[in-house]
Write a structure and sequence with these properties.
The structure holds 2 protein chains of 2 kinds. Chain A is 0% helix and 49% strand. Chain A is mainly beta. In chain A, a hairpin with a 6-residue loop joins strand 5 and strand 6. The relative contact order of chain A is 0.33. Chain B is mainly β. In chain B, strands 2, 4, 5, 9, 10 and 11 form a 6-stranded mixed sheet that branches. Chain B has a 5-stranded antiparallel sheet with strand order 1-3-8-7-6, with no helix packed on it. The chains are: A mainly beta, B mainly beta. Chains A and B meet through strand 4, strand 5, strand 9 and strand 10 of A and strand 4, strand 5, strand 9 and strand 10 of B.
Chain lengths: 114, 110
């Protein structure tokens, strides 16, 4: 039981390049989330998916797209990276609608855009 | 949107000391969770506590939803408790949009 896994762990991009961050969970959770964490700050929600086939914007969605590929996988795409997107990105999942709704987090992806 | 404020922003303790971390929120909430981010960046869920009191070993948490605050108690602190503690809330009837506070950075010295 790996929990929530993310790839890659580190990435350096040049301004304007694109990339996709991958996330998978093996806990059979319905809901999945993408957050970014900037230095000295809490996490901010980018996008979430309440169930397979649905996605919704969070607090800071501009510059990002997401795909809920199936129940296990939720990817985050940067179409044209900007230095302001330098951050640590966390994926999370939860069993929303179950007896408790704790969020479980992946190890994070540290992204630097130069 | 809902505002989440945590205090204090920084806390330095000697090993063995007790501490209380506070989380205030500006609106009624459907969900409140406390997380610990260790020095390596991993986020661990400590408590799901939209109301009431829970205990887990040396840690306990209390949420008074009617007064819009939650407290995290750490007793007999250990160096492994160091890291950042985050409070996160979901506004009532919005079941996916979690908002995090800025965190309390705890340093426990041996």
């Amino acid at each position: 039981n790996a929990g929530v896994t993310q790839t890659p762990k580190f990435q350096v991009l040049k301004t304007g390049q694109s990339m996709t961050l991958q996330c998978a969970q093996d806990m059979n959770h319905n809901s999945m989330y993408w957050y970014r964490q900037d230095p000295g700050m809490g996490l901010r929600l980018i996008y979430y998916s309440a169930s397979e086939g649905t996605t919704d914007k969070g607090e800071v969605p501009n510059g990002y797209n997401v795909s809920r590929l199936n129940k296990r996988e939720f990817s985050l795409r940067l179409e044209s990276a900007a230095p302001s997107q330098t951050s640590v990105y966390f994926c999370a999942s939860s069993d929303l609608g179950g007896p408790t709704t704790e969020q479980y987090f992946g190890p994070g992806t540290r992204l630097t855009v130069t | 949107g809902i505002q989440v404020e945590q205090s204090p922003p920084d806390l330095i303790l000697q090993e063995g000391a007790n501490s209380t971390l506070r989380c205030n929120f500006s609106d009624s909430v459907n969900n409140l969770q406390w997380f610990h981010q260790n020095p390596w960046g991993q986020l661990i869920n400590l408590f799901y506590i939209p109301s009431g009191t829970k205990q887990n070993g040396r840690l306990s948490a209390t949420t008074v939803a009617t007064e819009r605050y939650s407290l995290l108690y750490i007793s007999s602190s250990q160096t492994t408790d160091s890291g950042v503690y985050f409070c996160a809330v979901e506004k009532e009837y919005n079941n996916n949009d979690m908002r995090f506070g800025a965190g309390t950075r705890l340093t426990v010295k041996p």
